[in-house]
Amino acid sequence: MPLSTVVSSPGKVLLTGGYLVLDPAYSGTVISASSRFYTIVQDDTTVSSGNIRVRSPQFNDATWNFVVDIDSENILDPESNNATKNKFVQLALEKTIRLAVELKEKTIIQEVLSRGIDIAIVGDNDFYSQRATLASLSISRTLESLKMIKPFNKSGITLSDVHKTGLGSSAALITSLVSALLVHFSVLPKSAFSEDAENNHDAKMDVLGKALAHNLAQYVHCLAQGKVGSGFDVSAAVFGTHLYTRFDPAVLQLLMDDSTVCFI
């Protein structure tokens, strides 16, 4: 039976703190939302051996194919026939594979890649404006009307044209993607992302595993955005609701300056 891995990550709302969360001297209250991003990673015989296909079925022109060669310096190359580019997805794939190769035997990663990988990424409707859909259905813009829209609504537009609602879609996407890949490559156990991770028999290892996913997601998110941000959106996507204190931006600066380095 083909191996399949599913990991979801929530959006966020910063309840208190405002711009003060940019200063590690202050803390803010970040709330994880009920809306989530889901990443489904599975073996797929329709994908060529050593290749990865990523799909975002809610949008037009949102399929990206990549060729992976873990012995190459580039490690990951997008296929020339991709209709669009997605820096967030590409960096998440590249950095996660580099980390997996560092932490696991290369032969294990090669064996997983040899089966061909298909990745589907979807987000709950609340991450995106649904005005156009409501208008097409000729219904009023109310909370009750939003419940009438099918889950994972197809927008009919490209990602570059979508209007976001500010729930931290890019952070939730990257967190769910890197976490699902870490599990799929057997770098982390599934238990690291269970709701009861802290009470499992390997609780310490699970907590460390979740911290690893957090650190990787923070790095990829910063790299994709081109700056070290506040980080509370990724933190909420990994740890849920909590009192957030920003990490020292200097811990990521070396990695930001050298994008080829592997992050551990």
TrEMBL record:
InterPro entries with a match to the protein in the record: Phosphomevalonate_kinase (IPR035102), Ribosomal_Su5_D2-typ_SF (IPR020568), Ribsml_uS5_D2-typ_fold_subgr (IPR014721)
EC number: 2.7.4.2
Top enzyme class: transferase
Molecular function via GO: ATP binding; phosphomevalonate kinase activity
Gene3D superfamilies linked to this entry: 3.30.230.10
Keyword annotations from UniProtKB, A to Z: ATP-binding, Kinase, Nucleotide-binding, Transferase
Cellular component, GO annotation: peroxisome
Keyword Translocase found: no
Record flagged with keyword Transferase: yes
Pathway in which this enzyme or protein is active: Isoprenoid biosynthesis; isopentenyl diphosphate biosynthesis via mevalonate pathway; isopentenyl diphosphate from (R)-mevalonate: step 2/3
GO biological process: ergosterol biosynthetic process; farnesyl diphosphate biosynthetic process, mevalonate pathway; isopentenyl diphosphate biosynthetic process, mevalonate pathway
Highest taxon listed in the record's lineage: Eukaryota
Protein name (record): phosphomevalonate kinase
Species for this entry: Agaricus bisporus var. burnettii (strain JB137-S8 / ATCC MYA-4627 / FGSC 10392)
